[in-house]
Predict the structure.
Amino acid sequence: MSRLCVALPNGTLLAGACSVLERAGVARLRPEDFDSTLLIERDGHRFIKLRPTDVPVYVEFGAADAGIVGKDMLWESARDCYELVDLRFGDCRLVLAAPHGSALARGEWPPSLRVATKYPAAARRFFDRINVTAELIKLHGSIELAPATGLADAILDITATGTTLRANALVEVVEAATSTARLIVNQASLKTRSAEVNALAAALRRAADPATDGRNMTVAAAAPRS
Amino acid sequence: MDRAPNVDGAGAPRGRAGGVTDWLPGAAELRRASGEALLDVFAAWGYGLVATPLIEPLDTVAAGVGADAQARLFRFMDSDGSLLAMVGERTVSVARVVATQLRDVPRPLRLCYSGPVLRNQPLLGGRRREAMQSGCELIGAAGVAADAECVALAAEALERAGLTGVQIDVGHADFLPGLLEGGGLDQAARARVLAALADRDLVAVEAAIEGSAVGEAERDLLLRFPGLRGDRDILDAAAAGLRAERPLRALRTLGELWDLLMAHGLAGAVQLDLGAVRDFDYYTGPIFELFSTDLGFPLGTGGRYDSLLGRFGGAEPATGFVIHLDRCVDALLRRSIASRAPETVRVAFEPGAEPGAILAASWIRSAAPGARVIRDLDASETAPVGAVLHVRAGGDVLVWQGGAWRESPVERALEEIVSRVSETESWLADAL
C-alpha cells in the first residue's frame, strides 16, 4: 500500500487537525511533534506542516495527496482540488465590521465604501452579491487598525469570538460567510489511490460527525489496508 | 561565481515571460519524441492530421468554451478593430473546420491535431501558460462504439508515448444533471448543486441537498460521492431506486461502453465514475480522464460533445479527447526517462583531410537515419578524445573501438560505425 501524504496547517487549526486525525484512528499526532520537524512519518502515512495558505497549493500539485485547511483559505485561491469533508472544527465567520458609532455600524450604507481585508476574492464576491460598491484594500495582518487610522471605512475579516473586534471598538455589520476546517484532496490521488483516499475521508467524516464523535474507533480499525 | 546574483531590477538579464517553459536539449527531444509517438498512434487508427491557426476570432472561441475558459484567453485587436484570441484549446477550431470546409466529407470523420495553446493563468501559481496539446476528434458517430474508440485510442497513445499504467476514469456528463432533474429539484436548486459539483466542493453539494426536496434514491447517490466509482457493478447499484429515464439512460450507455472497453483490452485500467464533472460546458455524453500516479493533474481528458458543432451551423454528434503533452513529459521525467543522452558520432580529421571527413559524415548520416553525426570544425594532428572516427590525410582512417584506436580501410570503418549506431540510435524508442 502506498502511503498518503497529508498536509496540515500550522497555527490555530493544527491542534484540531491532530485531534480529528487521532479520533479518526488515522494517526496519533500532537502539535508539539512538529516543533522540531515539518515532516513526520507516522502510522503508515506522511504528514507535513505548512502555512495554511500553502496547503491548497501542495494539494493541487499532488505534492500532498490530501490536506486539512480552513474554508477561508479556499475562498482566496481557486485551486483545483476536491473538497470532500466538512471537519466541523475551527469555526469562524467572515464579517463586515465598522467603527462603533459610524453610520455603517447603524446599518446605513454609504454610497461608496473603502474596505480593508485579507480576503479580497471573497470580499469581491460578497459585495457583488449584495450590490454594494466597495473599494478593497488588501492587507496582510492587523486589519482591525485600518478604520482607526483612517485607512478604510470598514474591515471584512475573520472572527471566531468577536474579542478583537470589541477591543478595537468595531461593530459587526453583517456576516459574509462562515468557515470550518475541510479535507481537500488532489484530483489524481482521488482517482489513482481511491481506496486509501476514500478510507481517509470516511474515517475523518465519522470522527467529525458530532453524532458518533469517533468514540468507537481505534488506530488499528481505521489503519489503511496493506 | 565571482559575484553573487542580485535580485534588484537594475542590470538583470533579459528574461522570458512568466508561466512559460524553455525546453532544453534532452527534455525537448523527449517532448518531440512523445508527441510524435502520439501522432503515430492517431495515424495508425486512421485519424487524419489537421493544423489549425494559433489565433481565432474571439467570437469563434467564445461559441465553444465556457466563461471561465474565456476569461483566461490572451486577446488582442485585429487591424479592423475586431478581437482575436490565442486559442486556449483546439477542439473548437477543429469543430469550426468540420462545420465549414469539411461539411461535405463523408462521415464518420476522424481527425487529429497537435499544437500549442495559450492560457492566461495567474502568475506564480505554477501553471503553464503555453502548453502543447495533441488530440483526436471523431465526428458524425453517435454510438457508444465511437466513445469506446476514443478512450482506447487515448490509452494506447499514452502507452506508446511511454506512459504505462495509466488509469482511466469514465463518467457521463448527463448523469448528474439527469439525476437532479429526475429527483424533483427545481431549476435553482439544480443549478446550485451542479455549480458545487463543478467546483468539486462536496461539502457545498451536501449543503445544497440538505433541506431540498430531492428524492430519497437521488439523495443517497449524491451523498455517496466520491464512492460513486468502481467497475460495472456500481451501475446496477446506482440504478436501483431511480425512476427517471434520463439518468437511467446514462447508466445504460456507460454499461455498453464498459463492455466495449473490456473488448478493447482495458480491463484493470478503467474505472466508472458517476460523480465525474468537467470544466467545459460542451460535454453531453460519456466523458473520461487519464491519470498517472506520477502526476497530480490529468494527462488527458475527453468526451462526447454533441451540441458543439451545432453552434457552428452543422449540428452533428462528435466525441474526442486531448492529451496534455507537457504533462506527459513531466510524468516521464519523473520516471527518469531521458536522462540518457543520445549516442553521438564525432568525426575528426587530420590537416588536409577535411573533404574526406565531410564525405564520411554525410555517408554515415544517410546510411543511418536518425544518427547524430557531428564533424569537427578544426583539424587535429592526433585522434582526439571523444571522437569515433579520425580521417587521415592519406585516405585511411582510425576507428575508436573497444577503448582503443584501430587503423582500418575507410569502407569497413564506415560500415562498422553505421551498424554500431543503428543499434543505439533508437535510444528514444528504447527509452519509451
